[in-house]
Design brief:
Oligomer: single chain
Order of helices and strands: HHEEEHEHEE
Number of strands: 6
Strand content: 25-35%
Number of helices: 4
Distance between the termini: 32 Å
Largest sheet: 6 strands, mixed
Number of domains: 1
Helix content: 25-40%
CATH architecture: 3-Layer(aba) Sandwich
CATH superfamily: Gcn5-related N-acetyltransferase (GNAT)
Low-confidence stretches: none
Structural class: alpha+beta
CATH class: Alpha Beta
Strand order of the largest sheet: 1-2-3-4-6-5
Length: 144
C-alpha cells in the first residue's frame, strides 16, 4: 500500500503541476478506504522490480468500479496504464462482470483519452468532487 500511495501522490502532483510530496502519506487514507470495500483488489505493476503503477477496483451492484489507475510519472507513456486496464478487464471477465465504471477529472485529458482508447465511454453523468470542487465524469465500458 505504501508503494501505491507514493505513486498516487507523485502522479497527482505531476498532473496538477504541484511540487512532489516527500512521501505518499497524504494518499494513504483514500487507499485504505477503498481497500476496505468488499472484494477490493489492489494490483501493482512493476518495471525492473520498481513499482510503476497500480489499480484498485471493487464490485458494486453488478458492475466493477475502478477507484484508482495511477502510474508513477517517470513511467508515463510506457504502456503501464494500458497493461493495468487490461488486467482489470481480465479480472472482470473472470468474475462474470459485464460493466466497468470509473470517475475521471473532466480536465484530465490525458486520462480521458487513455480510457476512451480502451473502450470507455462518457455516461453523461458528472459530479463535483466534495474536496476539490473539480468536475468528474463517469465513464463506463461494457465487456464484449
Amino acid at each position: 500500500m505504501d508503494h501505491a500511495a507514493r505513486i498516487w501522490a507523485d502522479a497527482a502532483a505531476q498532473r496538477d503541476h504541484k511540487p512532489l510530496p516527500e512521501d505518499g502519506s497524504n494518499a494513504l487514507a483514500g487507499i485504505h478506504r477503498r481497500l476496505a470495500l468488499p472484494e477490493a483488489r489492489l494490483v501493482v505493476a512493476s518495471k525492473a522490480t520498481v513499482p510503476a503503477g497500480f489499480t484498485i477496483s471493487s464490485p458494486h451492484d453488478g458492475y466493477l468500479e475502478i477507484y484508482y489507475v495511477a502510474v508513477a510519472p517517470n513511467f508515463w507513456g510506457q504502456g503501464v496504464a494500458r497493461e493495468l486496464l487490461a488486467d482489470v478487464d481480465r479480472h472482470a471477465q473472470n468474475a462474470g462482470v459485464q460493466e466497468l465504471r470509473l470517475w475521471v477529472i473532466a480536465e484530465n485529458s490525458r486520462a480521458t483519452d487513455l480510457y476512451q482508447a480502451n473502450g470507455y465511454r462518457d455516461s453523461g453523468q458528472e459530479l463535483a468532487d466534495e474536496t476539490t470542487g473539480r468536475i468528474e465524469l463517469l465513464l463506463s465500458k461494457t465487456m464484449g
